[in-house]
Design goal:
This protein has a single domain, classed as Orthogonal Bundle (MetI-like fold), CATH 1.10.3720.10. The protein is an all-alpha fold and 267 residues long. Helices cover 79% and strands 0% of the residues.
């Protein structure tokens, strides 16, 4: 009885959280020029508009460029930071970890103003590189959390065994540590890309008119001339985010499964 009540309560919360999504997504296939119900007829008009209009097509390309660049920067730097903080050799590791995770809790407006001032002094304001750097700063904490969790699951005795057999530290990292931590690295990269794809507040501060991302274009369309193209773009973002989240969940499941399979052999 108690479990049934828990399941019902959890299902009700999930439905409540998903109701806004279920309400807006069908409007991506309306034939009307307004976001209203009832839908007069179903049409692919706005999906076609999303893929053919120059402003929307450019924003999608910009999102992929900026998201890809930010993911590469965040994954490399976040993985290196996680490796450096793993052994505890650095002083004040706890403080460093807190500093790395600050972009997750600092308000986006504060972070946007600070990044704008910083990029202007570097001469990178309103450039692709500047936006990529700003997004990477926001994405690094997600990589650190994911990679650190993967590194904690690695048995140090495996690395010590490789070192005792004569493998240098670079070989131990390349042949032992990195393959075991790859699921965490890939999961961190996926979360970093999804975060960059959905970011709009930071982009408003650091991006110029040529770096208009899909999220920023949606925000501008809502303010200026709202139409069902926004719902079509939201559908595209939600599908992309769900696919990335599913891939991350699949990687974590495979990691747990491989750990369970190797445990009996280790015994």
């Amino acid at each position: 009885m108690f479990r049934a009540l828990q399941f019902t309560f959890g299902a009700a919360i999930v439905i409540f959280l998903l109701m806004p999504i279920f309400a807006i997504l069908p409007l991506a296939f309306t034939s009307s020029v307004f976001l209203n119900y009832p839908i007069p007829a179903y049409s692919m008009r706005w999906m076609h508009e999303l893929t053919t209009a120059d402003v929307w097509r450019t924003s999608i390309v910009n999102s992929l460029i900026i998201g890809g660049g930010a993911t590469v920067f965040a994954t490399v730097l976040g993985t290196l930071a996680s490796l450096g903080m793993r052994k505890g050799a650095l002083p004040m590791v706890g403080l460093l970890r807190t500093l790395f995770l600050l972009p997750m809790v600092v308000p986006a407006v504060v972070l946007g103003v600070g990044m704008q001032i910083f990029l202007v002094r570097l001469g990178l304001a309103s450039t692709y590189l500047g936006v990529i750097i700003a997004h990477a700063v926001l994405c690094i904490p997600f990589v650190i959390v994911s990679v650190s969790a993967a590194l904690q699951g690695i048995d140090p005795s495996i690395e010590r065994a490789a070192s005792s057999l004569g493998a240098p530290p670079v070989t131990v990292f390349r042949r032992v540590t990195l393959p075991l931590a790859i699921p965490g690295v890939v999961s961190g990269a996926i979360f970093a890309f999804a975060t960059s794809l959905d970011e709009v507040v930071l982009t408003l501060f650091v991006a110029g008119p040529n770096q208009r991302t899909l999220a920023r274009q949606m925000f501008s369309s809502i303010r200026e001339n709202i139409n069902p193209t926004v719902a079509a773009a939201a559908l595209l973002l939600i599908i992309g985010t769900l696919c990335l989240g599913g891939l991350a969940a699949l990687l974590r499941w495979r990691q747990k499964r491989s750990a369970l399979e190797t445990a009996p052999s280790a015994i």
